[in-house]
Design a protein that fits this description.
Elements (H helix, E strand, L loop, with lengths): L2 H14 L14 H10 L3 H12 L6 H22 L5 E3 L3 E4 L2 E4 L1 H11 L4 H17 L3 H5 L2 H18 L12 H16 L3 H5 L1 H11 L5 H13 L4 H6 L1 H9 L5 E6 L8 H5 L18 E3 L9 H5 L5 E5 L7
Antiparallel strand pairs: 1-2, 2-3, 4-5, 4-6
Helix pairs in contact: 4-11, 5-9, 8-12
């Protein structure tokens, strides 16, 4: 790995851990990318093309619809397996068994082992398939393609944006480094108390169990979170608090599936960043920020596909690393 690639790799990890993106030094930008940046500066034809693209952009929801269908289907499998007693997908998103194969959420397994203060072999076996699967798909793919809270938060965000347009609410951003703090707090609580504290308040686990076994008082906590996100801070739990997202982000650092950004055709209109759950990962699309002609989006990306659907020039696409064919 070259020095420049190593530097970008480290930068993406630091962004995931909460550091704010910054404008790259000129020395860090590849010569080919510098030529494109210079060409775009003040180029009237390029500006006209940008305006035309925005005015004639066709709204697509291709990846969003695929994702919603996948998320709903995955969670319905748990519900139907339990209520029809077909033993296809037993348990919940925290720990389950699919046709006899044990599947255990990585963050849940970590919490249990910290609480018990030793490595549990059965848990390691159960997390193996999950670890390999999400390492291949990109860890935070779990967030947007499987997690039921993500879907509710996405709908709550639409309400927040509508209220913000009416100037009834405003977004209060929070320091993203707080997510690392929460991860450490919940890990230390499990270690100190012998109890998986996070599992008791995880909206992912609460919703999964409520869908399968029926609602309980814990749903009030989920409603409170959604209320906070609608009226105070957009997507607060997923952006600033959830340890699951950070755990899976680490797992997906070397994932071959990713969103790739191509500089040359980009109009830098910024619509992709407006729809992104984690807009810091798309800092590279800001005019003058791309360090190369092609830039893979970092591990904190949820692979939700909203930016791919929104991009008017097709500059953001899904890619499997090492394969030339784009999905």
């Amino acid at each position: 790995m070259s020095t420049q690639l190593r530097k970008r790799f480290v930068e993406q990890i630091l962004l995931m851990l909460g550091r704010e993106p910054k404008r790259p030094e000129e020395a860090d930008i590849a010569p080919a990318a510098q030529k494109i940046h210079i060409f775009k500066q003040g180029n009237r034809d390029f500006i006209a093309e940008k305006k035309h693209a925005r005015e004639h952009a066709v709204k697509k929801n291709t990846w969003r619809n695929r994702r919603w269908a996948t998320l709903i289907t995955a969670n319905l499998l748990f519900v139907l397996s339990y209520w029809l007693d077909v033993q296809l997908l037993e348990g919940s998103l925290s720990a389950s068994r699919f046709i006899g194969f044990h599947l255990i959420d990585l963050n849940s397994a970590l919490q249990v082992m910290l609480a018990h203060k030793h490595i549990i072999v059965n848990l390691l076996i159960g997390t193996g398939t999950i670890l390999v699967g999400w390492a291949l798909l990109g860890g935070r793919t779990f967030c947007s393609w499987v997690c039921p809270y993500h879907l509710l938060a996405e709908w709550a965000e639409k309400l927040h944006l509508w209220l913000a347009e009416k100037k009834l609410v405003s977004d209060a951003p929070i320091d993203r480094r707080l997510r690392v703090v929460f991860w450490l707090i919940f890990a230390l609580l499990a270690l100190a108390t012998g109890y998986t504290v996070f599992e008791a308040i995880s909206p992912t686990g609460i919703l999964s169990r409520a869908l399968i076994y029926g609602p309980g008082l814990a749903l009030l906590w989920v409603i409170a979170l959604l209320f906070f996100e609608v009226f105070f801070s957009r997507r607060a739990w997923c952006r600033y608090a959830c340890p699951i997202g950070l755990t899976y982000g680490v797992v997906g650092i070397v994932s071959p599936l990713r969103v790739k950004y191509t500089l040359e055709g980009c109009f830098h209109e910024g619509d992709c960043r407006k729809v992104c759950l984690v807009p810091h990962v798309l800092d590279t699309v800001i005019k003058g920020r791309a360090v190369d002609t092609e830039v893979p989006i970092g591990p904190d990306c949820t692979r939700c596909g909203l930016c791919v659907d929104t991009c008017p020039s097709g500059s953001l696409k899904f890619e499997v690393k090492g394969l030339s064919k784009l999905l």
